[in-house]
Amino acid sequence: MLNLAQYIDHTVLKPTTLVADIEKLCAEARQYAFAAVCVPPNFVKKAKSLLEGSDVKVATVIGFPFGYSAVEAKIAEIVLAMVDGADELDVVINISAIKNGDWVYLANEINHIMPVVKSKNKIIKIIIESGVLTDDEIIKCCELYGVAGIDYLKTSTGYAEKGASVEVVKLFRLHLPEQVQIKASGGIRDHIFAKQLIEAGATRLGCSAGVEIVKGERGEGHY
C-alpha cells in the first residue's frame, strides 16, 4: 500500500499563523511521520527545535507568495532561513518575469540563488504558480530550471485560484530531467487526489490537510 505520509510536506503558511499552530503542526508531523513541515520563515527555528530527534525536515518559503522581491532580498531570506536551521527552501521565482517573457532575468535569478543554497547542501524547490501560466510558459520553466540543478519544481503557492492538477504534474514530468523531482501543492484535500498526483509523477505533496488525507487513506472515519 502507498504510504502517503512520506510524500507530505505538512504545511501552515497563513499570515495569521500562531505559535500554537506550529506546535500542533510539528506534533502531527512526528505522529504521522510526514516528510517535512513547511512553515513561515519566522517559525523555522521553533519548528526545528520541536522536531529535534525526528526524521521530519523543516522547509520554509522564500519570496512568498508572489515572487517579485529582488534577487538580493531572496538571497538574504535564504541565508537567514539556513542559519535558523531550514533543511529545504521553497522559493517563489518572479512570476511577473515569466508573464513578461523575461527569461534572462529568471536565468540570472536562479544562477545567483543556486550557489547559496548548494553551498550548505540544502534542498531547493522552485515554485512557478502553474495555475496562472500557459503550457508553453510551464514548458519553458521546466527547461530553464531543469538545467539549473534544482531538486524540485513545485506547482503552486496555494494562493492562486488554481493549484495543483494531474495534467500539470504530467506536463512537468514530460519536460523535466529525470533527476528533478516534482512537488504538487494547492488544493490537495483528499487521499484520492493525492494518489492521482503521485501516480502522475509527484514525489512531494504540499498540503495543510495532511492529517485528513492520511486518515482518509487509512479509512479512519469521515472528515
From TrEMBL:
Annotated EC: 4.1.2.4
Primary location recorded for the protein, binned into one broad class: cytoplasm
Keywords: Cytoplasm, Lyase, Schiff base
Catalytic center residues: D90, K154, K183
Reaction equation(s) it catalyzes: 2-deoxy-D-ribose 5-phosphate = D-glyceraldehyde 3-phosphate + acetaldehyde
SMART domains: DeoC (SM01133)
A biological process term (GO) from this entry: deoxyribonucleotide catabolic process
Molecular function (Gene Ontology), one example: deoxyribose-phosphate aldolase activity
Name the UniProt record assigns to this protein: Deoxyribose-phosphate aldolase
Gene (UniProt): deoC
